[in-house]
Specification:
DUF1697 domain-containing protein; Alpha-Beta Plaits; DUF1697; alpha+beta; about 25% strand; 8 strands; four-stranded antiparallel beta sheet; 2 domains
Length: about 190
Amino acid sequence: MAIYIALLRGINVGGKNIIKMAELRKTLEQLGLLRVQTYIQSGNVLFESDEDEESLRIQLEKEIENVFHISLAVILRTAEELNFIAHNCPYTADEIAEAESMSDAESLYVAFLPKEPSKESLARLEVLQTENDQLRTKGRELYLLYRHSILKSKLANNLPKLDVPATVRNWKTLSKLVALANAMTESSRL
């Protein structure tokens, strides 16, 4: 059995695509997923399954559309992958501290993608980098560092122009998801 983290794209943001987490948990449990838990309202779900990532992704997207009438992308990572992402941030502690000192909001984010974007698509995004808005890629993740605000960033506003869907989480959320996934992993060993 693998522990998965499902990151739903674009729910409960700005009053659109509303899904109550209790209803989402119940729906996913009815699919046969085990130990389902959610974290905050932005569509973060942890669960156990022995199915492969692609089958799960398709199944989750279809079920969410059938039950909640919302068509969205589901991005999946295993607990091991999420730990790797968190422990391999390409920004130094000094770079992050500098960005945080210039901002009243979160500075470090990760955009999760179902697969690597094309080089052409990524190049269109990379040209939007500035001293204040930076991105570094590692496989299916884009690490984003904002020295002011993600809300005012041209780089962030152009993420939908990638040739694959992306869902973004701030570092605080990523860290909490890692902790929850690790707790699930530890409890399954007992």
